[in-house]
Design a protein that fits this description.
Blueprint lengths: L4 E15 L2 E16 L24 E5 H6 L9 E6 L14 E3 L3 E5 L11 E6 L1
Antiparallel strand pairs: 1-2, 3-6, 4-7, 5-6
Keywords: Glycoprotein, Secreted, Signal
Protein name: Mucin-2-like
Organism: Saccoglossus kowalevskii (Acorn worm)
Length: 130
C-alpha cells in the first residue's frame, strides 16, 4: 500500500525557563518536521470531512474529480489538508487495483481509462478535509 505524506516544517522560538514570573527566551531557531498521511482510508483529518463529491463519471478519458471544480461549486474549502476517494459503491480507491493518476488534496483525484489493464475506470467519489 502506498501513502502520500505531507511534511510540515516550521521554526519556533521556545520559552525555556519560566520561574518567578521571569521568562527567558531561547532565541535559537528550532526546526521541527512533522508528517501525516494526506490521502486514503488512513488520511488524517484535524478539521471536518466534506460530504462525498461525485462530479464526473468514468466515461471519456476517465473519472476526474478535481479540487478546482469542487471548489468552484462551493463544495470544498480552497486549501484542504487531506482527501479520501472511493467508488460510488464504497470501495476505497487503494483497494480497487486500478492505477490512480492523482490522489492528493492539492489537485484532487483522477483515474485515466487508458492507464488501466482492464478499462474503464470505476466511478469514484471524493471527500476533503477542511
Amino acid at each position: 500500500m502506498k501513502f502520500a505524506v505531507l511534511l510540515v516544517v516550521y521554526t519556533a522560538i521556545i520559552c525555556t525557563n519560566v520561574r518567578d514570573s521571569v521568562q527567558q527566551w531561547d532565541t535559537t531557531p528550532h526546526t521541527y518536521v512533522t508528517s501525516r498521511i494526506v490521502y486514503g482510508v488512513n488520511a488524517v483529518c484535524d478539521g471536518a470531512w466534506t460530504d462525498w463529491i461525485n462530479l464526473d463519471g468514468p466515461g471519456g478519458a476517465g473519472d476526474e474529480e478535481y479540487l478546482s471544480e469542487a471548489a468552484a461549486q462551493g463544495l470544498v474549502c480552497s486549501s484542504p489538508t487531506a482527501i479520501q476517494a472511493q467508488t460510488v459503491n464504497g470501495i476505497p480507491a487503494e483497494q480497487t487495483g486500478q492505477f490512480i493518476f492523482n490522489h492528493n488534496p492539492y489537485i484532487g483525484f483522477n483515474c485515466i481509462n487508458n492507464h488501466q489493464t482492464q478499462p474503464p475506470c470505476l466511478d469514484y467519489k471524493v471527500r476533503y478535509c477542511c
